[in-house]
Sequence to fold (101 residues):
Amino acid sequence: MDNQEYTPDIVSIVDEEGKEHIFEELDRIETDTGKYVALLPLPESPDKITEGDDELIILRVEEENGEAYLCPIEDDDEFNEVGAAFEERLSEMFEFEDEAE
Fold:
């Protein structure tokens, strides 16, 4: 049996205000409309790990002059389509709890 240790892909994003945010890249897909990544915010400190209220962040991958940039998805239809694709793929990898009621 192969005992491989899980190593997450960590992504650092600097926002418009210069503040750095750290995410774990859960998945990436390419559709007819573009390339996208699904990110999960990592807690700022170990005591925030159990809070568990972080949401999945979905961003479009834009390339310019050989550099990759992550941009918000402005179009609601595009966001819903890509979000559904990620949800389907990630539900196969992770067990999601249904938020009933």
Notes: The two ends are 42 Å apart (CA to CA). The first strand starts at residue 9 and ends at 14. Residues 60 and 71 are 5 Å apart (CA to CA).
